[in-house]
Amino acid sequence: MPTTATVPADTTVGGHHAHGWRIVAALAITSTVGCGTLYYAYPVLLRPMAATLETSPTAVTGALTVSVFAGALMAIPVGRWLDHHGGRALMTTGSIAATALLVAWSRVQTIGQLYAVMIGIGVTGAMVLYGPAHQRRRHLLTPHPRPTPSGARSSRPRCATPGSGS
Hints:
Elements: E1 12-13, E2 16-17, H1 18-53, H2 57-73, H3 75-85, H4 88-106, H5 111-128, H6 130-141
Helix pairs in contact: 1-2, 1-5, 1-6, 2-5, 4-5
C-alpha cells in the first residue's frame, strides 16, 4: 500500500507571498482614505472654506490647482526615490506629513495659509497616492518585476473614480 506524506503549505501562493496580499489590502484601504481626504473632500468643503476665509470659490479652487501642480513637480524626484530606495520609508513619511497637513488645513485662517497647506498636500500626495502604492504592490506581488522607471508614470494624482480606469 502506498504511503502519502503530508507536506506543510508553502509560504507563497502562486509564487507570491501571502503576507504581500495583506499589505496590498492595507495599501488599498489607505489609498482610498488618502484620496478621499486629500482630494475628494475638497469639492465638498469648497464653499464652506470660501465663506470662512471670506474669499471667492475661485480663489479656493486655485489652491487645489496649485496642490496638483506641486504634486506633478514631485513626480520625478519621488519616482527616483522609489527606484533607488523603494516605497516603504517614502510612504510612511508622506503619510505622517499628510496627517499633519490635514490638521493644519483644519486650522487655516487666510487664503495664503490655505495655499501653503495645499502645496504641502500636493507634495505628500505624490508620496502616498497611486504611484508609490502601485510600485509597492508591484514589488510585493511580482516575483521578478521588469525594471521600469517609476518617474516615467503619470504625474497627476490618481485616485480611482468610476470610469477612470484606475
